[in-house]
Amino acid sequence: MTVKKVVLLSLVGLLVLVLIFSLVFLLISRNNGGREKVEYYEFKLEEMYTNIKESDSILKINITVEYTDSELIETLNKSKAKISNDVLELLRSKTLEELSGKEGQQSTRKDVQQKIIEIAESSDVSNIYFTEFIIQ
């Protein structure tokens, strides 16, 4: 064999090895999802009652805030009165039609979540749950 053939075969072999290691690394990182496990925390607001706009009905609601930053609990506790006040103002501004049905509740959840994100100044609020939602 000539020197050119040996060098060419060595380069091809090296290229094949690099491709194999790259594929193995890619497969391993995909199996892990490339993501860290996210831990979720819950913050429960006190039971709230409010009138419904343009109606004689009353809304009774319990809200649980789900968040991902363990340090956010301090902000939520300090802002609990403001959160409750602003959420009640938001709910009082909604009509019975806006609160009714699955779409109404989902829209209200998103509005409440946005309000809490604004107050807490954190995007770590991942979800809002209505653990009780009664209109009478």
Structural write-up:
This protein has 136 residues and is of the alpha+beta class. The chain folds into two domains: 1-37; 41-135, 2-Layer Sandwich (Tetrahydropterin Synthase, Chain A). The chain contains five helices and four strands. The chain has helices at residues 3-31, 72-78, 80-92, 96-99, 101-120; strands spanning 41-44, 48-51, 58-67, 125-135. Strands 1, 2, 3 and 4 form a four-stranded antiparallel sheet that branches. Helix 3 packs antiparallel against helix 5. The protein is elongated and about 95 Å long. The relative contact order is 0.16.
Compact description:
This protein is about 55% helix and about 20% strand. It is an alpha+beta fold and about 140 residues long.
Q: Secondary-structure map with pairings?
A:
Layout: H1 3-31, E1 41-44, E2 48-51, E3 58-67, H2 72-78, H3 80-92, H4 96-99, H5 101-120, E4 125-135
Antiparallel strand pairs: 1-3, 2-3, 3-4
Helix pairs in contact: 3-5
- Topology as a string of helices (H) and strands (E): HEEEHHHHE
Number of domains: 2
Assign an overall shape: elongated
CATH superfamily of the largest domain: Band 7 domain
Instruction: Supply Rg.
Output: 27 Å
CATH topology group of the largest domain: Tetrahydropterin Synthase, Chain A
Under the CATH scheme, which architecture of the largest domain would be assigned? 2-Layer Sandwich
Strand content: 15-25%
Share of helical residues: 40-55%
**Number of discrete helical segments:** 5
Low-confidence sequence ranges:
none
